[in-house]
Amino acid sequence: MATISTDTDMISEQQIYLTLSRNLPNFKATSDLQPVNGGNLNHVWRIKGSDKDLIIKWAPPYIASNPDVPLSAERIHFEAKALQLFDEGNALDDLGGNTVRPPRCLHFEEELNLLIMEDIGMAPSLDEWLTDNSAATAGKKLGKFIGQLHRQTFANKQLSRRFRNLDIQQTRLEVQYNPAADYAMQSGAAGVDFNLIQSQTKTLGQQLLKEGSCLVMGDLWPPSVLVRRGEMRIIDWEFSHFGQPLQDVGHFAAHCWMQAHMAPSKELKDKFQKLWILFWKHYRASLGNRIIELKQDEVMTHAGAEILIRACGPFQEGYLYEGHKPGSRSIMQAVQKAQQFIESSQISELWTNS
User: Fold this and answer.
1) CA–CA separation, 268 vs 186, rounded Å?
2) Residue 178, class by beta-carbon neighbours within 10 Å (0-12 exposed, 13-18 middle, 19+ buried)?
3) Topology adopted by domain 126-349
């Protein structure tokens, strides 16, 4: 049997199996619950079946990998609602077709904060996949999908009411934007304008608490994009929010830059740069005249804040800069680049002197 924590706050195996039997009675399990590693926010399991396999996700009222940090379990309600938008007959059922889409939501047990989804198999994340594949198709498909997501949901009052994910935005303000200058200060980097970083990131964080303009995925980085047989599945929609498109664009920009910065070869570095260029090109084309809604200076500020929290903040562990000490060359370069982004007003400057 799979081992589930005995923590009294933890969901039990019995609750999971009972939920399966009540709501997916035709599912015949052929394995125990198998923990899926790699996530930080939630507890995730895979269970194999005679006809199909399932992914089961449970959201505790804290960060699963760090139980001392509270986080609203409402996040998984937003993920379930986002996945359901892509069901046949719903608002986004035609977006991306079968080529790019989230996993299918098979059942959501609201009272338990338990989400059951299709299992797409052992697909590599976008950064892993890119090692042996071309960036051309991936950048085009992903940019088009995110552009269409933003365009089709602009000024949608119904979605605005359903996706007011303020708990997540407040957490981002407190964990990412407000302390960004502190993270930069801890890095040991010289010549950094901490006052500028503090002013720009805090202002952006406050602005993002206001009513948004479109539905955003909210956590668009390579590990949230799985690639298999030419198809993409975008996972982990807990941060989905009726907010500003800058968060998706700035987030992906920051991660493309970080992946390129820490790439072990020039070939892989060039792939991540190309991935971004093609994403941005096809995103703009899909967004059309709505591009005026995208404030490029705020895109760059978010990108800078994301680099800081990953390179020298609490999200360093488990990612590209893990183990890199304050004052090291890689950390100083990342902090200097983050400041350059925060000072910038143009996305075209993303790769300047990279």
Assistant:
1) 29
2) middle
3) Aminoglycoside 3'-phosphotransferase; Chain: A, domain 2 (3.90.1200)
| Under 8 Å between Cβ of 145 and 220 | no
Residue 301 and residue 201: Cα distance in Å, rounded?
6
Residues whose CB is less than 8 angstroms from the CB of residue 194 and which lie 6 or more positions away in sequence, other chains included: 181, 184, 185
pTM metric for this prediction: 0.93
Cβ-based burial of 9 (10 A; exposed 0-12, middle 13-18, buried ≥19): exposed
Condensed to tens digits (0 to 9), the pLDDT of residues 275-318 reads 999 999 999 999 988 888 889 999 999 999 999 999 999 999 88
Distance CA 305, CA 236 (A): 21
Locate 313 and state its tokens: 């903040």
What is the per-residue pLDDT for 41?
Answer: 87
Strand partners, 191: none
13-118 CATH choice from 3.60.150.10, 1.20.1440.230, 3.30.830.10, 3.30.200.20: 3.30.200.20
Tell me the β-bridge partners of 45.
Answer: 35, 56
